[in-house]
Amino acid sequence: MRVCVVGTGYVGLVSGACLAEVGHQVTCVDIDPAKVDAINRGQPPIFEEGLEAILARNAGERLRATTSLADAFAGADVALICVGTPFDGQRIDLSYVLEAARQLGRLLRDRDDWCVIAVKSTVIPGTTDGPVREALEQASGKTAGVDFGLGMNPEFLAEGVAVRDFMEPDRIVVGGIDERSIERLAALYSAFPTVPLVRTTPRTAEAIKYASNALLATLISFSNELARYCEAVGGVDVADVMPGVHRMKHLTWRDAEGRQQIVSAASFLWAGCGFGGSCFPKDVKALIAEAHARGAATPLLDAVIRINESQPQRMVDMAARRLGSLRGRRVTVLGLAFKPGTDDVRESPAVPIIGRLLADGAQVVAHDPIAIDTGRRELAARGVDAAAVRFEPDLRAALAGADAVLLVTRWPQYANVPALLGGLGEAPVLIDGRRQLSPQSYSNYVGVGLADVADAQLVTS
């Protein structure tokens, strides 16, 4: 099948590359010539585990990139709209989606064959069969469902494991305005015959995406609220509680040998310093805003966001309680990316953490295996004085001389931090914001969801 992918961000490029990997002829479109050139050379313009290998196998063969939408769309059986949908705090910005629809509509005027236009960007329910349909029909002079197909095909790709998520999907959702559109989109995924395929309407497909992200975000905030309880009650570690929760029958299944296996969603039932990225914060806030605009209350999701937004400050407070004052103290922040396996720093807890540390007078050193450049740019974009931060690519050097170390991203490299600190002959307070490390691995350890021994001593003294 010939596929046109509009947009080469995380969703567009991973989707396009993986569709080529399973045998389709894919052309990706982007307005940035540098990104186009990199893709055609088989070099990913973003960091995503496994993506470089797929590009190397398919670039110049089943996958190519261009700045010309007309070139990419010519003869395409399916066009996937994979552009950004920013959220301004009130509503999502559909301008990129609608502009893509208008441009595709103008190209539809000169096509006599039938193709499907599908939205893959995350949009509020009613968008595909509403403003997107209107833009396509007005620009083309044609009728959706008669002259061309229209659908919504949400993505369920987690950054850092996006390639694996695409190649090993848990479900595929295709929402079409008619059966013909649905069948064309279903055929796009014929390489996954055993994967559950949900055939539905565009509006329902859009809602499935929002509901899925809202559920996972809720699991994280629930875990963080429970962590606060464990800290307050004392003698209970949330990191000991959660493995017991993971084994409940509602979160497990039995394999062919009868062994209990934990469902992947249980991984979101884990305390930390908050979720980030391009999806969870934006999508939950957009869902809330849309619900409120339509007169529906969302007290649970309101709380999900409030809890998440307060987690970075809790990390700073932990450091301040141990050090007495942050002014003039050297604090090392481990991790800028919002999660391991990616250089994406959008909505990363590290950004507000660093901002608040600087505001409190701390001297901040930041380390990340791959996200230093993107982290520096994101801090500046968020109004944080990036020039006041020392970005240190060497982990041992980043730790040297620290009064406090804040572990913010669960990079595997940080599993060795206790040993590195021991080798330096120093014992700064280590605040584990991801509960990656064992409390017994380090003498001066503080973890989210674990009562601080120093606090307990203060109470009893």
Description:
The strands form three sheets. The chain has an eight-stranded mixed β-sheet, sandwiched between helices. The protein is globular and about 75 Å long. The chain is built from 17 helices and 16 strands. The protein has helices spanning 10-21, 33-40, 51-58, 69-73, 95-108, 128-140, 162-167, 179-188, 202-233, 238-246, 280-293, 299-323, 350-359, 372-381, 395-399, 417-424, 453-460; strands spanning 2-6, 25-29, 63-66, 78-81, 116-119, 149-152, 172-176, 197-200, 252-254, 260-262, 330-334, 363-367, 390-391, 404-407, 429-432, 445-447. Helix content is 43%, strand content 14%. It has 461 residues and is α/β, with parallel strands linked by helices.
Layout of secondary structure:
Blueprint: E1 2-6, H1 10-21, E2 25-29, H2 33-40, H3 51-58, E3 63-66, H4 69-73, E4 78-81, H5 95-108, E5 116-119, H6 128-140, E6 149-152, H7 162-167, E7 172-176, H8 179-188, E8 197-200, H9 202-233, H10 238-246, E9 252-254, E10 260-262, H11 280-293, H12 299-323, E11 330-334, H13 350-359, E12 363-367, H14 372-381, E13 390-391, H15 395-399, E14 404-407, H16 417-424, E15 429-432, E16 445-447, H17 453-460
Parallel strand pairs: 1-2, 1-4, 2-3, 4-5, 5-6, 7-8, 11-12, 11-14, 12-13, 14-15, 15-16
Antiparallel strand pairs: 6-7, 9-10
Helix pairs in contact: 1-3, 5-6, 9-11, 9-12, 12-13
